[in-house]
């Protein structure tokens, strides 16, 4: 008789999730500053995981601390570190999925950057919190649990980088923080969420769609691109200052459908003549910036951001410029390719 102990008595292997911790409120601790004051990035990723009951039954978790900062301090160096670590983890089959803990202020920017430079079918999910772990009804543990649940769901593959906050699954391209303090602050503008998650289920409501892949600049450098915020009584001073400061690109957070004053438009013409790529986005939260509506983009040589908000338009323009793409028409095509 065969007396070998069957290997099948071992529990089915759980998926492997690499948790990359970067800081934010989800790693926050109360401070003495005020009744609601706290310091973001005071708790490590390992401590964070220890405070999420049941998450160890969803996945085998390995935690690495990539940074521990409030995300208003997020920067290119951390972005490149994240992107390289994720590429390496999947290339060497170290993990089946990645969850990134992150402050909420710039979560949409990090999500969009990674979505644009990573080319992988493996789930990459960002999550965070609006209340520190020491607050009443802290949202971090539930968000972390749900992020791991989404990251380990088979149907999360091939969807690019996702944001999971407050029971909702968002695609990197569309997600924005829309409220300074509310738990329900993330919305997928112009598109709606891609899915929903609760402790029992993960449901996607859109077909899987991989996002644009531009690759990671090999020298880890991104060119200077400035955002100009438009307003009533606007002159061209800030734009001329940006030209003098050596900007390679400008993104206008325009009024309405990406508009600027006549004086500012003349300054943008000077920028284009100086070889600077100018993208018109909007300071309005919802809606597309379309070409050739009030501004004649063809005549002025401008790019319309379409659905991308100023912060994300800046990242896409930086990556295109880093890739050597400077022609407005080609940049416009790439902006349009993401949806
Ligand atoms: N809710 C938050 O995460 C905000 C805290 C901090 N400003 C950050 O983005 O990291």
UniProtKB/TrEMBL annotation:
It is an enzyme of class 3 (hydrolase). Belongs to the asparaginase 1 family. Residues 224-335 form the Asparaginase/glutaminase C-terminal domain. Keywords: Hydrolase, Signal. This is L-asparaginase. The active site is at 25, 25 (o-isoaspartyl threonine intermediate), 104. Residues 16-207 form the L-asparaginase N-terminal domain. GO terms for biological process: asparagine metabolic process. InterPro entries: AsnASE_II, Asp/glu_Ase-like_sf, Asparaginase/glutaminase-like, Asparaginase/glutaminase_AS1, Asparaginase/glutaminase_AS2, Asparaginase_C, L-asparaginase_C, L-asparaginase_N. Substrate binds at residues 71, 104-105. Coiled coil: none annotated. PANTHER family: 60 KDA LYSOPHOSPHOLIPASE, L-ASPARAGINASE. CDD domains: L-asparaginase_II. Its EC number is 3.5.1.1. PROSITE patterns: ASN_GLN_ASE_1 (PS00144), ASN_GLN_ASE_2 (PS00917), ASN_GLN_ASE_3 (PS51732). It comes from Komagataeibacter saccharivorans.
């Amino acid at each position: 008789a065969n007396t070998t102990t069957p290997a099948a008595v071992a529990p089915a292997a759980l998926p492997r999730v690499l948790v990359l911790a970067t800081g934010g409120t989800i790693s926050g601790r109360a401070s003495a500053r005020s009744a609601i004051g706290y310091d973001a990035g005071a708790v490590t990723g390992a401590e964070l995981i220890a405070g999420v009951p049941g998450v160890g039954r969803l996945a085998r978790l390995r935690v690495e601390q990539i940074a521990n900062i409030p995300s208003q301090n997020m920067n290119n160096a951390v972005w490149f570190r994240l992107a390289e670590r994720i590429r390496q983890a999947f290339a060497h089959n170290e993990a089946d999925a990645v969850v990134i803990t992150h402050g909420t202020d710039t979560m949409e920017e990090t999500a969009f950057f990674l979505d644009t430079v990573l080319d992988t079918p493996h789930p990459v999910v960002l999550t965070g919190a609006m209340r520190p772990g020491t607050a009443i009804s802290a949202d971090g543990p539930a968000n972390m649990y749900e992020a791991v649940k989404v990251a380990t769901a088979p149907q999360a593959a091939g969807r690019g980088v996702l944001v999971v906050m407050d029971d909702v699954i968002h695609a990197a391209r569309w997600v924005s923080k829309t409220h300074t303090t509310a738990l329900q602050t993330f919305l997928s503008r112009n598109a709606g969420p891609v899915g929903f998650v609760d402790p029992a289920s993960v449901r996607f409501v859109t077909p899987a769609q991989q996002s644009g892949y531009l690759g990671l600049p090999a020298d880890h450098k991104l060119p200077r691109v400035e955002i100009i915020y438009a307003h009533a009584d606007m002159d061209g001073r800030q734009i001329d200052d940006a030209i003098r400061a050596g900007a390679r690109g400008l993104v206008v957070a325009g009024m309405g459908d990406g508009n600027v004053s006549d004086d500012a438009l003349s300054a943008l013409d000077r920028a284009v003549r100086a070889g600077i790529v100018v993208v018109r986005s909007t300071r309005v939260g919802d809606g597309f910036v379309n070409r050739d509506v009030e501004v004649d983009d063809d005549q002025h040589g401008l790019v319309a951001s379409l659905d991308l908000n100023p912060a994300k338009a800046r990242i896409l323009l930086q990556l295109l410029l880093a890739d050597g793409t400077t022609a407005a028409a080609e940049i416009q095509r790439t902006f349009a390719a993401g949806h």
